[in-house]
Amino acid sequence: MIYLDYQATTPLAPEAREAMLPWLSGPEAMGFANPHSPHRPGRAAAAAVDLAREQVAALLPPGGNVVFTGSATEALNLAIKGTARGDGTNVFAASAIEHAAVLDCGESMRGNSDVFTISVDEAGLVDPEAALPDQLQLLAVMHVNNEIGTVQPVERLCERVREHSGYVLCDAVQSYGKMPLPDGPDMIALSAHKLYGPKGIGALWVRDGIAVAPLIHGGGQEAGLRSGTLSPALCAGFGAAAALAKARMDEDAAHVAELWVTARDIFAGWTLNGSAEQRWHGNLNLRKDGLDVARLMSDLRDLAFSAGSACASGSGRPSHVLRAIGLTDRQAKSSIRIGFGRYTRPEDLEDACARIVAAAAAQGV
Fold this sequence. Notes:
Layout: E1 2-3, H1 14-20, H2 40-57, E2 64-69, H3 72-82, E3 90-95, H4 100-108, E4 113-118, E5 138-140, H5 154-163, E6 167-171, E7 187-191, E8 202-207, H6 232-266, E9 271-272, E10 283-287, H7 293-299, E11 303-304, H8 320-324, H9 329-333, E12 335-339, H10 346-362
Parallel strand pairs: 1-11, 3-4, 3-5, 5-6, 6-7
Antiparallel strand pairs: 2-8, 7-8, 9-10, 10-12
């Protein structure tokens, strides 16, 4: 099996796995201890969580705090609902190509909030000078799109939102640890498993001075923002993955850039979805008019690639991202997404891309 679905999830880094193992041990080593307990094993577990928090924060701006969550979806919901004005004057806006965790959360607040969508152009980019709603409380804009890889002008949008005295939430799930993060956001959502870390843990970075109300109530963990017992193993894996990404960022980016050139050459004649310039090059979203993607995937069952975002796969609905950049339903359904990264071997990518092209040609497209 050749794995080319890095936007859905990434392989677990061996270094992250090794960091997790001591906290998955049996009763003799006490690695199972609750990090919120005051006894010695609990304090040792808490120290592992503290180290992980520092490692995750090392890739984030200064002047803020990392709140561990169960996922980036939870982090995004915490930011959106936790900063909403509760007096009926809340105004929330998001780009049209945000993750469903943002768009669906916004929709859930209609009736108590005014909810706006900011359109994108055919390249998948928000106009940095786009009109913003009056009394804006929060704008959600992702750094790198999970479906088409476009990199948004987050810094300029942050400047604009400050003029409205509002906040900016940045979904950095696809960019964290892979490129420098933009300056300016008030909150940043992260996910470990998109960074070669474990599934089941995410984080919300909150700038100092930003008041966020909790979604989950209970024991008051995470400074009262996210009650629930933390997993030292998951935290340690997240931290190790972040530290490794920090050390390897330039090397990983150079590797991905080379893979991008290779794949683009093989897919000559296919149409790229999204910007070719303002883009993370580990994401290749392509279409071939008339392509039967379901048949393609059936014919190439030993290749793991995507017909759309992983969160929408199996729904039968065309991608809302591809629709937002102006594609017809037919064009959207003839699109595939190939994702690659640190552990993708050039020879595997070449083989997979050549086989996809040949299988498409066999369909007569």
